[in-house]
Amino acid sequence: MNTQITQNTKDLQVDAQFPQTMREDEIDLRELFSVIWQGKWLIIAITAVFAVGSVIFAINQPNIYKAEALLAPASSEGSSGGLAALASQFGGLASMAGINLGGGSGTDKTQLAIEVLKSRQFVGEFIEKHQILPELMAVEKWHMADNSLSFDPELYNSETKTWVREVALPKRAEPSTQEAYKAFMKLISVNQAKDTGMVTISLEHQSPFVAKQWVDWLIADINRVMKERDVSEAMRSTEFLNKQIELTNVADIRAILYKLVEEQAKTIMFAEVRDEYVFKTLDPALVPEEKAKPKRALICVLGTMLGGMLAIMIVLIRHFARKEI
């Protein structure tokens, strides 16, 4: 009997505490809305400041234009197919002689070209060859009326063509290759579609004409660099193979070496007659007429929302801080 009375007493206590908790939560929620309503003018003021600031910030951002080109990997008729046939025909004899004919399992030439395009050496040589360092790192504004660029006088003196920026060591007034590479990689994007293999090269700049010109230069330069690499390698291989032919008297091995020399000659021939050696341009870059960024409306909306949330947090923190005191 006493146990039942004790249990009933506990149940009554729980039932009494539950609605009390509900009331406390309800009061807290009302208090929260009340605090926000009391601080509405502060919230409106802070939100308005952020809204005006975001508008000013968005207006002062320069227009950025994007030029892009669609490329297709050039067919590799030449050495790959010939070497594959040669491997199937003389693979056994070649392995006995210590010669690796491959058989087409090498690195994808398109992927290799993309990695070369993103390399520090290629980008550094590209910037040096075309003398685009001021246009890359010191542009202040593009003037649409006369298609001219103005440079930041605190960074670059366009009249004397000298760098005047003030930087701490180890940096120098003229940007280094590493600085230029980092700045350039922020502007360029190279993507290859997994399903089609097509490559898209895009570049952003304040001047749409500069963006288009740089894309054209990039395509021409990567084709030239990859062509020179293959021709140089083929010439060295030919020289080595001719020496090996002179050193062997085995007819079958000499036949393999002569075939290899023939394949290297084909590589050189195809490289010399094709300007678009690695990439063929399907859709060339055009001078963009519309800006790619900034998205000023989005900047204003996000800035205003940030200001509103920050204002509400300030009002709530002030209220509960005073309440604890």
From TrEMBL:
It is a multi-pass membrane protein. The chain crosses the membrane at residues 41-59, 297-321. Keywords: Cell membrane, Membrane, Transmembrane, Transmembrane helix. Residues 25-129 form the Polysaccharide chain length determinant N-terminal domain. Residues 281-319 form the Tyrosine-protein kinase G-rich domain. It is found in: Cell membrane. This is LPS O-antigen length regulator. It comes from Shewanella cyperi. The lineage of its organism: Bacteria, Pseudomonadati, Pseudomonadota, Gammaproteobacteria, Alteromonadales.
